[in-house]
DNA sequence: ATTTTAATCGGAACCATTCTTGTTAAAACA
DNA sequence: TGTTTTAACAAGAATGGTTCCGATTAAAAT
């Protein structure tokens, strides 16, 4: 997903265009990894001195909810990254630098018969380790 | 895993036997679901009035580290359950009651060629939804 | 029985996140 | 273009799960 697509989603859903929101999306477009609210705040600070944490969190959750971002919990902290626009996939996540790599194999195809009586809402498949650069 | 096995692990690693630790393990033996520190504290309270949160958390992490418990993050809170002694597997987790069901299919076999240059440490595969009782 | 060392307590501190009230600014409307 | 409406934001207090600290207690070793 790029900045334009993200802003289009915001507009279509009736949310306002603000410089801060654009700047936030720019941040995620430039990061191929899962980032914390703190990471974002550090990025915003120079351009918007004293930006409120409330603004950071409110928009992170809004973006997540609108499908502009996707999120996961790493070491007890919520992390966010730009949602990949194309088909369903999972991620390898580097424990050192946080960079992600797409995994084009989803295990859900194989497990339908194991959960006959169950109602499946969601699933999570993540692989952790070190990327080629960090190993 | 049962109470005896868990206490044996503690003893073998040189940790002390205390009634509180035994009571904690008894709690997890009786729960086939992921529980929070709070759940455990509520269970402990009647027998050990005013038990310190420090004791709860210290032992939860010790047990996790020793492989007596396994843990996962659900809705931003750490959850724990007794480690299943036998072979490697994953879990379906009910969003309503927290009960777990073993999934005997691990996707890791299939993805080795996708991560040639990467060093894999760990992985997580969880399925969320509603169990037959809660649906 | 005594010593050593770990476990526990009580409560303060921490930190990510959320809430509250008042203010500002974007978009809609006249 | 000026005014109204409504959402976005600021500032900082509050929350809640978790961790830390110094003092005390109890288990295990000697």
Could you characterize what this model shows?
The structure is a homodimer of 135-residue chains. The first copy, chain A, is 32% helix and 24% strand. Chain A is of the alpha+beta class and 135 residues long. Chain A has two domains: 3-82, Winged helix-like DNA-binding domain superfamily/Winged helix DNA-binding domain (Arc Repressor Mutant, subunit A), CATH 1.10.10.10; 90-129, Ferric-uptake regulator, C-terminal dimerisarion domain (Dna Ligase, domain 1). At the A-B interface, strand 5 of A face strand 5 of B. Strand 5 (119-130) of chain A pairs antiparallel with strand 5 of chain B, so a sheet runs across the interface. Chain A binds a DNA duplex (30 and 30 nucleotides) through residues 14-18, 20-21, 36-38, 50-55, 57-59, 76-78. Chains A, B: This is Fur family transcriptional regulator.
Looking at how many chains there are and whether they match, the oligomeric state comes to homodimer
Question: Biggest interface pair, residues each?
Answer: A-B, 33 and 33 residues
Low-confidence stretches of chain A: none
Top-tier CATH class of the largest domain in chain A: Mainly Alpha
Query: Roughly how much helix do the residues of chain A carry, as a percent range?
Result: 25-40%
Q: What's the structural domain tally of chain A?
A: 2
Q: How would you spell out the order of helices and strands of chain A?
A: HHHHEEEEE
Estimate the strand proportion of chain A: 15-25%
Beta strand count of chain A? 5
Architecture of the largest domain in chain A in CATH? Orthogonal Bundle
Report the span from N to C terminus of chain A. Answer: 29 Å
The CATH topology name of the largest domain in chain A reads Arc Repressor Mutant, subunit A
Principal-axes geometry of chain A comes out as globular
Strand order of the largest sheet of chain A: 4-3-5
The mean pLDDT of chain A is 93
| Structural class label of chain A | alpha+beta
Count of DSSP helices of chain A? 4
Radius of gyration of chain A: 17 Å
Largest sheet of chain A: 3 strands, mixed
Organism (chains A, B): Gracilibacillus pellucidus
Protein name (chains A, B): Fur family transcriptional regulator
């Amino acid at each position: 997903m790029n900045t334009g697509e993200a802003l289009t989603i915001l507009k279509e859903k009736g949310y306002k265009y603000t410089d801060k929101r654009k700047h936030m999306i720019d941040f995620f477009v430039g990061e191929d990894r899962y980032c914390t609210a703190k990471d974002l705040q550090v990025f915003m600070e120079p351009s918007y001195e004293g930006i409120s944490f409330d603004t950071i969190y409110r928009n992170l959750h809004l973006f997540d909810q609108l499908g502009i971002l996707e999120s996961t919990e790493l070491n007890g902290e919520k992390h966010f990254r730009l949602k990949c626009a194309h088909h369903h996939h999972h991620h390898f996540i580097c424990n050192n630098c946080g960079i992600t790599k797409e995994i084009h194999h989803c295990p859900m195809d194989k497990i339908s018969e194991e959960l006959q009586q169950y109602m499946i809402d969601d699933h999570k498949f993540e692989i952790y380790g070190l990327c080629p650069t960090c190993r």
